[in-house]
Amino acid sequence: MNEVSSPTLHSSNSPSLQSSLLLRYRLVLGFFILALVVSGLTAFPLRWELETLVGWLGWSQLAPASAPNGLAFWLLSVRDGLQETYAKFPWFAYGTDWLAFAHLTIAVFFIGPFVRPVRNVWVLWAGLIACALVPLLALACGPLRGIPFYWRLGDCAFGVFGALPLLYGLKLTRAMEAAGSETRPTTAKNRT
Fold first, then answer.
1. Do 118 and 172 fall within a single domain?
2. How far apart are CA 89 and CA 162, in angstroms?
3. How far apart are CA 181 and CA 25, in angstroms?
4. Structural domains in the chain (count)
5. By residue range, what is the domain housing residue 62?
6. Each residue's pLDDT tens digit, 14-68
């Protein structure tokens, strides 16, 4: 008996489905990489950013003691702390330079799964583990450093919201694997 291939029977392996999955995957992971890069780059000019934010909010002339609310008190305290610390110990900013560098380096690790999602799925799992650890660190170390609770919740949000694109990326990776993407290396012989 001669079997005829039906497009509906093999649609999960269709090149258009694989291309669609890969495009969605790369958009999501590209967003995640971009977020890491932006987060890293914003860690370099902390003092300038804080002075700009406080000025934009109209609080630049205030001292922390005369702050109109808790957020203003916190931002003004951090601004003054950075100004005093950088004036006395300019090398202190080197620590946040390394924080920025760490974000940029982590972003580099996600280039592997961006290019070869199935082969490098482990990087997404490592990213999810890191995202799960963010709230633990924020909630454990925040009180030791005098960080307000609402600020710690904001820090926790980075872990929670960072996990969302990675979870979706894992879902798309499983779908690509099921559709036969990356099951064999791409060579000139098997491209056709």
1. yes
2. 33
3. 12
4. 2
5. 42-100
6. 778 889 999 999 999 999 999 999 999 999 999 999 999 999 999 999 999 999 9
